[in-house]
Each structure stands twice: as C-alpha cells, then as structure tokens.
Amino acid sequence: MKFSPLKYSFIITLLFLIIGCNSKEAKSISSNEKDVIDIKVDSILKLMTLDEKIGQMNQYNGFWEITGPVPKEGQAAKKYEDLKKGLVGSMLNVKGAKEVYALQKIAVEETRLGIPLLFGFDVIHGYKTISPIPLAEAASWDLKAIKESAEIAAEEASAVGINWTFAPMVDISRDARWGRVMEGAGEDPFLGSRIAEARIKGFQGDDLSSKKTVLACAKHFAGYGFAESGRDYNTVDISEHTLQNIILPPFKASVDAGVRTFMNSFNDLNGVPATGNKMLQREILKGDWQFNGFVVSDWGSINEMIAHGFAKDSKNAAEIAINAGSDMDMESYAYIENLKELVEDGKVKEADIEDATRRILRTKYELGLFDNPYKYCDEVYEKETVGKKEFHEGVLDMAKKSIVLLKNENNLLPLVKSGKKIALIGALANDKTSPLGSWRIGADDESAVSVLEGMKAYEGNQLTYSKGADVTTGRTQFMWETKINTTDKSEFSKAVEVARKADVVIMVLGEHGLQTGEGRSRTELGLPGVQQELLEAVFKVNKNIVLVLNNGRPLAIPWAKENIPAIVEAWHLGTQSGNAIAQVLYGDYNPSGKLPMTFPRNVGQVPIYYNYKNTGRPIMNEPESVFWSHYIDEKNTPLFAFGHGLSYSKFEYSKLSLNKENFNATENIEVSITLKNNSNVKGKEVVQLYIRDLIASYTRPVKELKAFELVELNPQESKVITFKVDEKMLEFYTANHKWEAESGEFKVFVGGSSDVTMEGSFEFIKK
Ligand code: BGC
Known about the structure:
Blueprint: H1 5-20, H2 31-47, H3 50-56, E1 58-61, H4 74-84, E2 90-92, H5 97-110, E3 118-121, H6 134-138, H7 143-159, E4 164-165, H8 189-204, E5 217-221, H9 240-247, H10 249-256, E6 261-264, E7 268-269, E8 272-273, H11 278-288, E9 294-296, H12 304-307, H13 314-324, E10 329-330, H14 334-344, H15 350-367, H16 379-385, H17 389-402, E11 404-408, E12 421-425, H18 451-456, E13 462-466, H19 492-500, E14 504-510, H20 531-541, E15 545-550, H21 558-563, E16 566-569, H22 577-585, E17 651-658, E18 662-664, E19 668-677, E20 683-693, E21 704-713, E22 718-726, E23 732-733, E24 739-740, E25 744-751, E26 759-765
Parallel strand pairs: 1-2, 1-10, 2-3, 3-4, 5-6, 6-9, 12-13, 12-14, 14-15, 15-16, 18-26
Antiparallel strand pairs: 7-8, 11-16, 17-19, 19-22, 20-21, 20-25, 23-24, 25-26
Helix pairs in contact: 1-2, 2-15, 3-14, 3-15, 7-8, 7-17, 8-10, 13-14, 17-22, 19-20
The structure holds beta-D-glucopyranose (BGC).
The site of beta-D-glucopyranose has 6 residues, from loops.
Family: Belongs to the glycosyl hydrolase 3 family.
Domain Fibronectin type III-like: 685-754
Protein name: beta-glucosidase
C-alpha cells in the first residue's frame, strides 16, 4: 500500500482517542467527541497543501461511468485528473454502490492524503421508492410521519452510496406560480420550521456515522422562494422585516436541529447574489447562528454572479463567494481554478480557505468516512435494501396522510364498495410516471401505482376508464423537457359517454409531475390544457363528480369549487400514489390533511397568504365603496384557506377559554377548546392555534400560526385540547432589529383552518 501521511495521522488520533476518550460516551456527537473531531481535523489540515485544501472545496458532477472507458479528453478527463490529484472534495449525481466504491477508491487509494469524498444527490422525496412531494407531505402536518419518510429516503439512498442529500428545501413561498413550491413546506414560517426539523432529524438521525443516515442540506439560503413574479431564478427584493420574520425562521430552525450543510441560492437578494452574500452567510449563518457545518453553492451559482452583473469574471466570482462564506463550489470550477492565485494575490485569506476545509472535513468525520470510506458501498446490502417492502408501506402511509379533502357535498365520498358503476376519467388517472414528480432522478419511469391500478383493487364496483384528453403533448419521460399543453379534444366524446352511464365519475385532473419543479413557473394556475373543458363537458351529463387533483402547487379552480360536489387534493404522491388515492376514496383511510399553502381564486391574487397585513383600509367581504383594499373584479378571500381540510368525521369546535387575562415573561397562558367528533367515523383533526399582535413596533399579520396538534378522536368523542402560549411564541423581529416580544394586547384563535373565527384575547406584560 502507498504511504499515506493521513493514514499515519489516524494512528496518532487513534491513540488520542484511546487515552482521552471514554468509550462509554453516547453515540450522538457529544462535546467531547466534537473536540476529538476538531483535533483530528486539525491534524489533517496540518498535512495539507493549499491546493489540497482548495480541492476539498471543489464539487464535481458525476463525469464518468466507471464501468466504461477512462475519459481521455475534454472536461471529463480533467475532472478525472483532478480526482487523482486529491483536488476534488465531493461529487454529485453519482449513484450505485459499485460506482461510488470505484470513485471513492481513487480518492482513498490514489491521492496523496487519501481523503474520502462526499457523494451528494437530490434525494428530495425519496430515492427510488418515492414518497409524496414535500408540499404534499407538509399537508399532513404530521411531523412524526414526515420524519419517518425522511428516514426511509436516507436509508434507501445511503444503500446506493449516497451520503449527503440536498434536502430539505426550506424556502417559504407565497407564490404558486413558482414551480418549486412543490419542493417546500408551503407559505408558513412556523409550520415550515417544524417540518424542516422533522426532515433533518429523519435524514441525519441521531448518529451520522450510522450506515443508514446521510447529511441533510437546508436550502436555498436565502430568499429563493420570493422570486419576483414567481419566475424561477428571478430577482428577490424584500424588506429586512420579511427576510427576518418569514424567510429566515426555517433556516434558523434547521441550524438548531443540527443540519450539517446549507446550500445558498441562485437569486440576488436586495441587489446582492445570495452566493456572494456576506451578510447572509458570514454574519447571520456562521456568526449569529454559530453554524459550524459548511455551505455549498447551488449549481454553478458562483459563476452566475457574472451574469448577475456582480462579478467580472470567474476569478472575481470565486473571490466574492469565498469572502462571503460559500465553502464549496458546485460545478463552477471557480474555486479550483482561481483560489490559489487569489490567496497569492492577497485577495483571499488562507485562513478562510482553511476554515472552509475544516468545515468540510468535519462532516466527513461525522459520517465516519475516515473510519470506513466504503461504508456506503456494499452491493449486497444495496440489493437487499433498495425498494424494500417496508419502504413501500412507509411511502403509502405518508401518501394517505398527505391527501386533503377540499370539499365533500352530500357525502359523495367515501364511495360505496359494491354495486355501482364508476367512470374513471383523465390521462393522469392512467399515468405511472407523473405521480413521481419532477425530482425523481433515482426512480424508474412508470414505477408509480396509477389511480386506475389502485381503483382496480376494489372489485365490487364496475370500473370503466376513459382518458378524455391528455394533459400535454409528446413525451413525458425526461426531467429537463418542457411540457406543452395539448389542445386535442378528440377523445372527449368517449369520456362523456362513459360518464353518462356511471353512478359516480372520478376525474383525475391537474398538472403532470413534470409541469412542476425547478424551472417550471406558470402564469396560469388553472387546469392545464383542455382539462377544464373536459370537466365541464362531463359535468353536463353527470354531476356526481369526484375531482381528484394531481398537482405540485395551489391551483385556481373556482368553477370546480362552485360546481363539483367533491374535490380531493392528491398532489403528486409518489410510488404508491394510486393505492393511497383509492383507499381514501373508498374510505379505508379517513383523510386528515390540511393545506400548507393558500389556494387563490385567480392568479391575479398571487401572492396570496393567510398571514397578510390588515392595511389602513382593511379587507371587507363586500366593500360598500371603492376606497378599500380590494379588487373590483374578484374577492380578496382565497378559494381554499391555508390550514383548510375536511375529514369523513365531522369535527366541532367549542368553548375557547383562557386560564387568565394576562401573563408575563416568566409565565405562560393556557388556551383551551373542546373538540368533538360529531360523527360515526374515527378520524384525525389538525387543531391550529393562531395569534394576532394588535399593536406593535412593526405592523403585524392578522393571524400567525403558533402551535398545532394532530388529534385523533373516536366517533362522538370529545376532548379538551390545551395549548400553552409563552413569550417565545410572541416574538418577532422588532423595530429594535432583534427578536423579542413586545408588551400589549393579543388575540388568539383556535380552529381547523386559518379562517377560524373563534377567538379570545390576552395581554402580555413584559417585565
Ligand atoms: C438546484 C438545487 C439542487 C442542485 C443540484 C440546482 O439546480 O437549485 O436545489 O440541489 O441543482 O442538483
């Protein structure tokens, strides 16, 4: 074996470990262990040349199928040479235990120091066994289920060699036009924070050195979800107030939950690209929040600062990015090509390079890669693990929990199980790829259970399928393809005939999975293509329609809300989509999802969100004069409110009470309500608590979610639900430019949706 100083340094640190560390210490990283890691990292840093340190900060996209010929020329050959020289710290988009092993072997055995690589991948909602899109999972408001879903994703992904996922995306967004709302947890900073924590804990577990856990990555830091006009990558111009109160909380929660990496973002924020934003990365993240993991750029975002008009060339971009605190360069080649010279020119401090390298090496230690660089590369284990039965059961459970019953007139749902003629209409009902969404690089096309397949499992009814119309033209297989809506109505009449003869019509309409996600912003929020016309044509012959929506963003479907008796929000639910939908439609699962994002009536209302400001001319339902904050052609209210979602149970709220009238910083106040399940069906309800700070140093939203609880009740059961409100829940970023609560009057609301009206009030006295 080649001499490796690094391997020699292990012996020293091993000795240190034996002498200095109690072996009975807990598995999760204790402060003692952290110190040990610091010492180990320092011992390696001492051995590293400047080139090698910069190499750790360099991330390349997978460039070579190792089973194929060795790249001889072009970019791939250069990357290969860099890899052998120890000038690569991480790779992305490499998958499969065999591939990862082969590349890791080069890093470990052929480079001077043998430092293992990190392998990153967009495991956004599952690797091969796909769970619901994150927006759908958020609709469950079920933090335990969300955490378990991330655990499945981590276990499956780590079995194919991946040790780092670029998730969760914790960007808050109020704009359904933005295609990436599917990847986040919706519009609310509180819900978004809780979900960020759950997902991070699911991915990373309690022990990063376990074979089943991966590094998580909170992205995109920051403001990406506020792209102007919902157009992806667009400029973001927002106040400090919005940044602090709305955008940053889930990122802060991610740090508090122990996330080990951050990704910055493509957008500029108030004139400064996020990748080159010192205030965000050095002052807030690494300064105020004391984050000691590392920051990776977004794909090519260092060099994109040239197009932003912020850097004159790649060298200048590298200088700006490192000085602003971006530690790793994803695919810009800017660091590897320029950082050394920038240090020599005195434009970049070697200490900053060392700091970035230290952060990266620390994560490698935490993952246990220095003990066993091949721990994620076991082909037998990979075979046993990928696609395990338990994973399918898990994603099915998550999919059912993600479904939101938006409307259910005359108890059209659940369907009876026998003796009926059911018409199933819509191309999406027979689509086995679309439910996987757009982030499913590890999954096979056609691998989802379609609604048609799910419905067929119920044999008591007579089921007839008719497509009616496609959603888009052409192929739908490639992640990077743009989808063109079809105009073809030639199969309408067949579907209308099937519907005419049916007792109930199930129409599966909405967006193809590839019409959502990165780069897929929309200016219209209705049903794409000819689907609205199809819906109306079918409605003319049969009004008993259950509309099942497949979509990655809130849709504006006012006609459907007005006319269609039952509407089920089924998003893009992943591999087990069709089974989950069928089980909900047939009542074998009682839905309990609630919307994590407001549904507009009209795209013109966007951005629309529940935690809006009152204004000086507040919204009235029916303004009597023109000079109110309103539209002359549309209501202000949403089509479906944030937090809305029905159940087959009937939940009734009553008796909101508070245990006192005021409280101070050392106390709390208890807010209680009685929840009754006034039905014969057992069910779950997400009880939501909102507050309103009536007078403050900055104007405050009319409502802010501050707590919620998922409560299960038997038929006719009642339960008193009590929330404790404390000072922390009243904090916001005040005119003093810090997070604090202010004394004053507050309203508190408890109910099953943000349009709750049952309220109480209290006073907070800050001492
Ligand atoms: C996305 C990131 C993603 C990265 C790597 C970018 O285009 O914005 O979210 O993690 O690509 O695939």
